[in-house]
Amino acid sequence: MEAAGGDRSKRTWVVDVEKKLKEADKTAEVSRWEPHCIYRVPPCMTNIKSKAYQPQVVSLGPFHHGHRDLRHMEEHKHRALRQLLRRADRPLDDFVAVVDEVTEELEGAYMDLHSEGRSLGREQFLAMMIFDGCFLLELMRCTAADGKLVGEYANNDPIFSPHGILNMVPYIRRDMLMLENQLPLLLLQKLVEVESGKPPKNDFINRMVLKFLAQSSSPFPPGIGLGLHPLDVFRRSMLTGKCHQIWSPQDIEEDNAIIRSALKLYQAGIQFKPSKTLSLHDIQFRSGMLSMPTVSVDDSTEYMFLNVMAFERLHVGAGNDVTDYVFFMNSIIDSAKDVELLRSKGIIHNAIGSDQAVAKLFNTISRDVMLDPNSELDAVQRQVNGYLRKPWNIRRASLIHTYFRSPWAFLSLAAAILLLGMTVMQTIYTVLQFYRDDNSSPPPSAPSPI
Q: Which residues cross the membrane (predicted)?
């Protein structure tokens, strides 16, 4: 009886699989994954530094909503919503109605939203989106250059006052770069639409988010559509412009040799200089010169790179440009001496302390990272290796480092060359004088008769 029950159970799941097999549709599979753009970071990625993926001050979106350590920010979200409603002079129902129309779209942005059995109901999700979205809008506007909205809040406000902007906003800005802590920009677009009475341009939302996240970054390219979320906008700003074309394809090595460290490259004759832009695409090698964008390394750099790389790994079609850059930086940075060299050339701005800390940062975040063999950086790496395999380049570098490393070495070389030249000239003069004296001597006279 037990065996028969087991067979019946087996037949049941076999039938179920066969039924789903017949119902399988490639188009349906594509539409299933297409709307997702915000993901939970799997343990295989968080084992590097789990804290880098967890918000520390504020929860945005459903993945960390209600966490005990983040509940204190809910009061500030409510206050931000009331202030926005007062300024817009629009009833809350207008905002609710517009956001409710795109609730399914907003839910679809979060992958595995209902997987843990503690998902929010539709009304709870709708309220959370409105509170979080209005909080983000108020925060970005308060930190704008004109600072007009700051006066609408109390002088001792812990978040929206000048004191809060100086001391709390940097932590919130860092939390906005967490992949699990994202809000779809479609939400902000709808809220601004209700507030202003007309749909804003996509570039307006993109530029507002980017201005808040990175005041010193490259301008966001216009006309590419509304970003997915703040992290997506920030990533795109790092990759403005197109990759440089390789100037000498015949010099590209076909092997998979890893590029040497910066110090060894420098000793082999390769020079470094900052690129003209901050784009990670602006890396090129030409005539022994490797130009790279300047990167500022501070307390948020590790968090930013880890979350951007997680997004590139999990979001199909995002590309691997930032991951490739981190792999490239790890290849040329082995120790603090490499960081010191790059810092002296203006490529690295160190704001975290020792050069060893910067080296450790890149060596750590690049763990389990591979370079895309079809990327432009892989081509640059091969081009550098091809340059190093030419013997004359190595000999010339050795000559320069030996005799031109200091003024005294150069003077010694110049004195040696001058002495050698004078010796050669003296030898030539002596030989010529000998032949001249020999040719000018009179012929021997005939002997006199006896």
A: 408-432
Query: Which range, of 33-37, 305-309, 409-413, averages the lowest pLDDT?
Result: 409-413
* 147 lies in the same domain as 213: yes
Rounded CA gap, 78 and 215, in Å? 27
401 and 377: one domain? no
Same domain, 169 and 182: yes
159: burial class by Cβ within 10 Å (0-12, 13-18, 19+)?
A: buried
Q: Would you say residue 410 has pLDDT above 70?
A: no
Mean pLDDT of 363-371: 87
pLDDT at 15: 80
Contact assessment for residue 174 and residue 231, using Cβ atoms and an 8 Å cutoff = no
CA-CA-CA-CA dihedral for 218, 319, 24, 26, to nearest 10: 80
The residue segments making up the domain with residue 401 are 390-431
Domain-located, residue 309: yes
Same domain, yes or no, for 412 and 422?
A: yes
CA angle 383, 389, 391 (to 5 degrees): 135
Does some domain include residue 311?
Answer: yes
CA 166 to each of CA 128, 140, 304, 337, 370: distance values in angstroms, whole numbers, following the listed order: 26, 13, 20, 34, 38
Which residues, including other chains, have CB under 8 Å from residue 11's CB and lie 6 or more apart?
none
The predicted-structure confidence for 102-146, as pLDDT tens digits, reads as follows 999 999 999 988 776 567 889 999 999 999 999 999 999 988 866
- Whether the predicted pLDDT of 13 surpasses 60: yes
Structural contact between residues 199 and 220, judged by C-beta atoms closer than 8 angstroms: no
Query: At 367, is the pLDDT very low, low, confident or very high (cuts 50, 70, 90)?
Result: confident
Q: Which two tokens stand for residue 59?
A: 């929860």
Same domain? For 338 and 205 the reply is no
* C-alpha distances in Å from residue 350, one per residue of 198, 299, 319: 44, 10, 28
Alpha carbons 130 and 283: distance in angstroms, whole number: 42
Both 394 and 374 in one domain: the answer is no
Q: Which pair of structure tokens corresponds to residue 396?
A: 């010339």
Paired residues of 348 in beta bridges: 295
Q: How far apart are CA 175 and CA 160, in angstroms?
A: 17
pTM: predicted TM-score of the whole model, two decimal places: 0.82
Query: Do 341 and 398 fall within a single domain?
Result: no
Kindly state whether residues 351 and 422 are assigned to the same domain.
Answer: no
